[in-house]
Amino acid sequence: MIQALKLGLLLNHRTFEGYRVIERTIFKCAPDLFKVQVQTFVQKTLLVVSTNFQSRLFSKMGRKFFVGGNWKMNGSKSSIDEIVNFLSKGPLDSKVDVVVGVPAIYLDYAKSKLPANVFASAQNCYKEPKGAFTGEISPAMLKDVGINYVILGHSERRHVFGESDELIAEKTAHALENGLTVIACIGEKLEEREAGQTEAVVFRQTAAIAAKVSNWSNVVIAYEPVWAIGTGKTASPQQAQEVHEKLRAWLKEKLGGAVAESMRIIYGGSVTAANSKELAKQADIDGFLVGGASLKPEFVDIVNSNQ
Prior knowledge:
Elements: H1 2-11, H2 16-29, H3 32-61, E1 65-70, H4 77-89, E2 96-101, H5 107-113, E3 118-122, H6 139-144, E4 149-152, H7 155-159, H8 165-177, E5 181-186, H9 190-194, H10 198-210, E6 219-223, H11 237-255, H12 257-262, E7 264-268, H13 273-280, E8 287-290, H14 298-303
Parallel strand pairs: 1-2, 1-8, 2-3, 3-4, 4-5, 5-6, 6-7, 7-8
Helix pairs in contact: 1-3, 2-3, 8-10, 10-11
């Protein structure tokens, strides 16, 4: 019986409360003859588990939750006013960094309207400070209008506009050198996941950035499986956690423990108010990059999902 209980306890390792549920069930169902023996074992196991769980929890608490909204090529002054209205009403969790990715032409307007606890971000910028690059904007220009965040490497930039890992890494390095915080996006396509290449893809994309960047203090990594972006399909909390956990282990191996533990790795891919709370419970998910739902009032619920 004790062996069976050990197996049950070890398998149900997701939350500390899970152990309490098991403990209560055991005491309700086990014959009196076994209660003393079982209680001793459970209490010892709970001590180890709760210590490990608290250690993991406190580690995550050191990384401030981050929720970004990516408006993509959507918006007008009137629609921005509507978004500003529901963000201002909130209330928004004060323990969360909140950023919205605004089309370049509306950056200045959005910045002037957004509440003080929500920051405007650019959706792209180039790797040069100025020059003959028609249609591009530079980090220096963003800083000049008071913008401190930029999204780089989004799957639409990679797969619609053909941006390579190397170009994204160069843009990331230049943005960081000019004082921007970069939301660096990585993620695999459906055929890559089905071929078992998820880890290889996200490691390759991250390695390209690592080759150009030495200081990671102003980087937020956004894992966005391409097959889940705008499709209504979402990686399960377990699927997302698995990739985040392996990516953090890769960061530790390649860049050191300090970078790995402090790095905020956020998830993107059809995040909604309905699934955000369960995703937020995962140990290595430090927030979200939200697409369509960031244009709707439910974005407030997503911001507050870590409460």
